[in-house]
Amino acid sequence: MLILGIDTSCDDTSAAVVEDGGRIVSNIVSGQSDIHMKYGGIVPELASRRHIEMIVPVVEEALEKAGLPLTGLSAVAVCHGPGLIGSLLIGCSFAKALCYSAGIPLVAVNHLEGHILSPFLDARPPEFPFLSLIVSGGHTSLFVAEAAGRYREIGRTRDDAAGEAYDKVSKLLGLGYPGGPIIDRLAGDGDPASIDFPRAYLPGTLDFSFSGLKTAVLNFLRTQSGSAARGAAALPPATVSDVAASFQKAVVDVLVRKTEWAIKKMGIRSVAISGGVAANSELRRRMKEMAGDRGAEIFIPAVPLCTDNAAMIAAAGRHHLTEGDIAGPDLNPRAYLPL
Ligand code: KG4
Ligand code: ZN
């Protein structure tokens, strides 16, 4: 079963061919950080325009690398939400037209389901049921994945997503977009114990909150001779690294502790972590350490499969196709789409 996946939910144009829901035949991701960098975040209108330019060459490249004609596909799986509505529209309209003209079935995939099932693209996938922590730019949620297509949310952020906090702190420091990889790198040179940023554990729940942490970073910068207005340029490089390391430790402490609580509460010892922040070196290290202490098994996709990619959409598309869950020409993207 060969499925072409398409994801244009945010600022990456991606197309991939995946065999039997797990073997990547090709996976092309065309990023846009060059356009959004100077604004310190994604400008939705610019993202949509770049998707229009890139969707045809990216899909062509994915098929070419797979050595496949369109007629060799079992289906096309497209992400129809959640995400930026203008961006989603490009992928959905393109996928509908492609399927209509080539007579191929179309399946619609929720972006979050793609992230949850991304560990199935690895050589050693988890078995159901497993806990799934999605940590990305748009979401921070804990799910119980009971079976393919059956996911129960047991915790979610009440305000900012973890990746959003990374991006906003990076912007405050004048470091650029996306903030996650930049802060991850700088944190390696800083002292994580140098600044005592707050951790919102929200005892008794599996929910998250990161907006207070972001405000604490802003308040700290205000105490540093007006650096909040001037960004990292006003701070000695050692202080920027210390802010990065201390902020990152606060985020990772919370994500690890709450995942540990979820393992205990749900009695499930298989944990998958996905989404862009799962690419974070410190989070990967600490989660593996915690899982070792708790006798749990941890599944974290390879770094390129943590951030947005169409291979995860194709992987998730397989079970929709198997179940006969086919989308029609009336498929519309949705910015808000609960799982
Ligand atoms: O999953 P993703 O590509 O898109 C969404 O669905 O949101 O996640 C993007 C987010 C961004 O906020 C980015 O800053 C963050 O993932 N990110 C990281 C790292 N790489 C990407 N955050 C922390 N450390 C990283 N190494
Ligand atoms: Zn994502």
List keywords for this structure.
single chain; 339 residues; alpha/beta; Nucleotidyltransferase, domain 5; 2 domains; five-stranded mixed β-sheet; 10 strands; 44% helix; globular; binds 5'-O-[(R)-(carboxyoxy)(hydroxy)phosphoryl]adenosine; binds zinc ion
Report on the structure:
- This protein is α/β, with parallel strands linked by helices and 339 residues long.
- It folds into 2 domains: 2-117 and 305-322, Nucleotidyltransferase, domain 5, CATH 3.30.420.40; 126-300, 2-Layer Sandwich (Nucleotidyltransferase, domain 5).
- Helix content is 44%, strand content 18%.
- It contains 12 helices and 10 strands.
- It has helices at residues 33-36, 44-66, 85-102, 111-117, 162-172, 179-187, 211-223, 227-230, 237-266, 281-294, 303-306, 311-322, and strands at 2-7, 13-19, 23-30, 75-81, 106-110, 130-135, 140-147, 150-156, 270-274, 297-299.
- The strands form 2 sheets. A 5-stranded mixed sheet has the order 3-2-1-4-5, sandwiched between helices. Strands 8-7-6-9-10 form a 5-stranded mixed sheet, sandwiched between helices.
- A hairpin with a 3-residue loop joins strand 2 (13-19) and strand 3 (23-30).
- The longest helix has 30 residues, at 237-266.
- The protein is globular and about 65 Å long.
- The chain starts with a strand and ends in a 17-residue tail after the last helix.
- Bound molecules: 5'-O-[(R)-(carboxyoxy)(hydroxy)phosphoryl]adenosine and zinc ion.
